[in-house]
User: Fold these one by one.
Assistant:
Number 1:
Amino acid sequence: MSAKEKRARAKQRRREEAQRQAELSREQERRARRRRAVTMGFAGVAVLVLVAIVTVVVQRLGTPDEGPTPRGAVVGGTALAVGKRSAPVTLTVYEDFRCPACGSFEQRFGPTVDELVDDGSLRVEYHVATIIDAPFRGSGSKVAGNAAACAQDTGKFRPYHARLFGHQPPESEDGFTEERVIELARGVPGLVDADFRSCVRDERYRPWLERVQAEFDDRFDRAGAPTALLDGKVVLGGSDGTLAKSMKTPQALEREVTNRAERS
């Protein structure tokens, strides 16, 4: 074999070896890509599983227990209604049983509201707020609010609502205890029974009260009570302390409701 042939064969072997090395390198790269793909796939699944677990845990630990809703509650379950569903005018009231301004509102406007409800002109939707407990400490707003919701279950909300406001303790005194609200309930015929007492003592509607207060805060940016709306328009309180002409006196409210009822 000549020297020229030897050089040609050596060159061919080097070329073949280079090709083999290149193919081996490509195969190693393909395997590495497959391993990365599998690893990323498992990692993605693991992340999804972890997210799902965390979501469930957060929902269970972070979401408040919504609890039961009082029987017959309206407006998404946040209000207790008094009056005929067919009444042409609706008064929406946010009030706290421990709130002295709410007590004054009931004392002043309550008799007129009752007359308008009884003659079928007005329906009232009460949202039970619990804003006084925090600044003055205690739990009287929640205890009384829960008891009122318990009374709703037996169809006695209206007379018990009047009884609570009629015996409202001073704002600075946390006077609405469980014993006191049960004692006041005895003044409403047919209200106090084993279920009512259990409802009060078990705080059955405490989570519901929290939902009602949250809705009030969200809607009016933490407004004070009482806040009232007539056919959906704020006429008292609200975010800017409204006092409409129709709410300046009970007589003005009666005229406004009567006029609206006649026009309907």
Note: The CA atoms of residues 78 and 211 lie 7 Å apart.
Number 2:
Amino acid sequence: MGNIIKVLFICCLLFGSALAVPAQKANADTSRYLVELSAKPADLKAALKDWNMLRSFFLDGHYYAVLTGQKSLEELKSNPAIISAGVDRKTGTAAAYKQTTPWGVKKSQAYRLTAKDCACKIAIIDSGISDHEDLKGRVQSKITYLYGKEIPKTATDTAGDQHGTHVAGIIAANNNTYGVTGMVPNAQLMIVKVFEGEYGGYFSDITAGIAWAVNNGAEVMNLSLGVHASKDEVTERVLKSAYDKGVTIVAASGNEGLTVDYPASSAYTIAVGAVDQNYRMPYWSNYGRGLDILAPGVNVLSTVNKNQYAAYSGTSMAAPHVTAAISKLLPLYTGPKNGQRVEWVRKRLTEYADMRSVALKGRTLQIPVLNLYRSYYGIK
């Protein structure tokens, strides 16, 4: 698995028109692999003596690792210590004033449900987070997985466009007297830094971050990142483990005006495209098979570093609106914590959404647009 995931840095224009940043294609580091192991790493030292293990992690009875070496992927796959393996793909990815409610909070009608909170943990797998007055008290835990390293209790957002901080503000900016207010102002955030900016990070960092979030109690997580490529076997296993535990993973569809990016295209995630204030889907919002819902993603005002604010566009901005909405819906669910809960969330979001006709490339599509109030109360 080795491509750069071009983080739906999918955001990315300040104040105005959207910029469609292409998802980076195969930029493979063919000596670095993300693998699923057949047993505990300590029991496989002899079988893997020709490989250097950078890191391993565990989720739901499965062991995963990042290996480097000079042998081919085919040789690695033939090793009995390996269940599945792939090249480790890479992913890449924008002064206080009187408080305003961003249009996305209004359009999704989240403002009508301010008293409906969830004690659930929301994980943001992104570029980290900067200190910001409007996010004070929202971060419950944080960790960094970057270039094979695990750094606990830190996740500083060093991305030039403050991608992760912007996403966090859309979800959880405090309801005070200045700045903006988020969809869920009292949210409990788990921040997982997996990339630094347009230079990206590896899929192995993302999968390790997802595993950490699941193991530490996340119930919904946001992935405003992706790559325009096929599904990855090992990443699918990790996504399925989260799905089977009832963890809802929301992913941005991508900004190339093409088919849906991965991991949004996975059956184990909820894929989100963008609309503007007039319910128009921008030409750059990826669509097609696998797209579940549209949400506000054009000129979205949110937090960046130095206690500032910026308006960005992209499906990276649409996804956190849905992530936050899901946290409001989860207390309504009374069934088992497994894939049924994820499918209940998907149905609740889409069945009670605002259905809109979207004209695109000579076709008219009927696509659901997020309406949290309708979804919460089951209003058609």
Note: The CA atoms of residues 56 and 70 lie 19 Å apart.
Number 3:
Amino acid sequence: MFKEDEKEDLSVNQIKVSVIVPVYNAQQYLKDTLDTILGQSLKSIEIICVDDGSSDESLSILKDYQNKDSRLIVLTQQNQYAGVARNNGLNIARGKYVVFWDADDLFEKNALECMYKKCEKDQADLCVCAANRYDSLTQTIIKTGTYLKKEMLPDHIPFSKKTHPRYIFNFSTNVPWNKMWKRSFIEKHHLRFQNLKQANDTYFSMMSYFLAECITVVDKPLMHYRINNTQSLTGKASSTVFCSYQAYYQVYQDLKNDIHFTTEIKQSFDNRLINGMLYSLKTQSMVQSFMKIYIKLQQSLIHDFQISQQLNQDYFYVKKDYQDFKDVMTLTPHQFLLTQYQMTNRHIYTRGHGFLYRIYYALYYSRIWKLCMKLKENLKKL
């Protein structure tokens, strides 16, 4: 259970946005993140930080900031991961709108104000904004269209699954930190994050896309997602190998019999699922974890999600996903890794790509090669 530190009460009518931040051993970047939150141009906010049993100085930092700004509330809980922390924060939230931000990211000064005004203007249940990445090692901002895919947005905004079924699960990712929700929408549909160590946001975000009657967007980057942070959940994919699969499976169980889950929406879901599972597979750094998820995908994916075995290339929004999906279904794990290795090697030496692009593929190339060699060694022992 969590404990709320005593603080002066705030008028509910004054709170426009509740900012909920799960915190776990985030002392390295926590101050920078809190500074960007407390420095938001929208002042009528509350910040609910939920310490998830940190063993470093995170809780001390939170309490120090709490003493300086009465808008900050600190909750504590035993280590139960970010999903439970977000739920505990949501349970006491009082703002008209809610955002779920991470304890190591950075935010533009007007982020909340921009999204709040867009929600109010369009009377939206959900607002999604663009975002960039921030490299901790090089301290540079890397532009990316990953978090708001403009090519998958409709001509008319706002929208919903009724007006934009083909890409309803694909125009953004499942991360929660580039989104703002109307709190009454969350409560109406009883939405909560799953109790998973990783991918606990998949169910929450995908059900939001499906259930929202009005989705709007802010097409400029308001967040900077920190990469090359070894403490982040994304950096620990190998210790949570089946979380992503479990999350997608629960979404599908809740949607498959819904009368609004049309053929077009099923295509959107399948593309989101396959893309997500391929990403989960490729981010494994340990042979055992890679093998477990590879075999799971080969043996269970088509059956568990009722995916047609007759899919052609036109069914896929990302053409490379089509080839990778075919490879996973037909190749051995070692053959798949060798194919990925050869493909990545070609990417590195393709002319015309920028430096950061080539570095990214070089790192992926290195990881794939190491997995190949480890898998080869394991096969020799059999």
Note: DSSP finds twelve helices and ten strands in the chain.
